[in-house]
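Predict structure. Chain length: 344.
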Amino acid sequence: MHSVKERFLSFAKDFLGFLLLILFLILFFTIESFKNEQAGFTVPDTWLQVNTIFLSIVLEAIPFILLGVFVSALIQIYVKESWMQRFLPQNAYAALLPAAILGTIFPICECAIVPIVRRLIKKGMPLHVGVVFLVAAPILNPVVAASTFFAFRTDLTVLYARMGLAFILSIIIGAILYIVFKNKHHLKRTKHDLTHEHVEVIGNSHGSVTRWKQTFYHAADEFFLMGKYLILGAFVAALFQTFLDRSFLQTIGGNEWSSTAVMMAFAYLLSLCSEADAFVASSFSNMFTTGSIVAFLVYGPMIDLKNTIMLFAFFSARFVIGFILTVTVTVFLAVMALQLGGII
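Prediction complete.
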């Protein structure tokens, strides 16, 4: 039995998600009316820009969220726990390399990776292996490689550094988090999990719910579960994009240490899709060092603002904080080492 407090918090989260969805629909369909001076009111241009950026982030991410929750649903229905034990090496460290290689195959951006990794861990994938896939797949996949190539085709150093760092650092990050957490359970159990288990029992016992119906049920349920956190993260990211003083960024862009730190913070706040962030990064090429551009392209897909909100929703706070600190320190030190060594 759930306590009154748990039921209230669950209701509050669902109600907030519903309000965010309504807000998104209102802004999407009525944006032009806000610009109409004859209506007797106008909205400041800065808030119109917030709305534009907010809508662009959500619309850009929704297709990938749909892909992620559908793949997650397929994993839930068709992937057996025994498969994980059969194909992954028993040695914790030996399993890191296959996970990183797996990230090079699937065209999944960071918008879709959280539900997929969550489902894989629930199916028996070790936590540290899931971490490797979480940070590697959004960068190492072919679509991101192609977009980075076209954005920096005059200087392929950025492409090579991005892909090489992502591959190596994903293994290092996975190893560090294995040492810290030892694959203890850090997934939160939600009411949606209980509902899914109930549906599966009914389907398996009475044959009334076929596998394809279960797949679509899981996908739809998880889409709305993830969607409210996506909308919240997109709105906060839009606020930062609009009101952040970019002239301040330009004044510190030439220093290797400060520019790397600032571009990592910028990547976190902007919450760009990894399949499009290279074109944004290329626009900063004249203001920031090559190393800081690489840091932007490696750090953002591994952890950003909207992903942080999703991670806190489904993983323990202790794990998420440890994950963010590990990724931040590892990426910063690696990029600085490459810059000080004259490699980039």
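Summary: DSSP finds 16 helices and no strands in the chain.
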